């Protein structure tokens, strides 16, 4: 699932973007992108749990889904980190992680 750190970063980012009064279209695009990515993670987790119950499925499929899920988590963190970089908020990124 999406890490707690990632959501804290996203929340901080959204609050800052509202303070900057950036275009609502930009905010909407960012929110939709992150929501779609989150939905992908939920779908993959659900499928993985279902396949674990049905042991007849090949282990390779499960490994592939775990890999995609791990990639999805990295992608989510990269999206948030990139947004912080774009609006020059690097100084906020480090304190949130620790």
Radius of gyration: 16 Å
What overall form do the CA principal axes indicate?
Answer: elongated
Category by helix and strand content: mainly alpha
Give the domain tally: 1
Q: Let me know the average pLDDT.
A: 62
**Which sheet architecture does the biggest sheet show?**
none
Spatial gap, N to C terminus: 19 Å
Please write the string of helix (H) and strand (E) elements: HHHH
Tell how many strands the DSSP assignment holds: 0
Which regions have little confidence, pLDDT < 50, spanning 5+ residues?
A: 89-98
The count of helical stretches stands at 4
> What's the helical proportion of residues?
over 70%
Strand content: under 5%
Q: Can you lay out the helices and strands and say which pair or pack?
A:
Blueprint: H1 4-20, H2 24-53, H3 59-86, H4 90-97
Helix pairs in contact: 1-3, 2-3
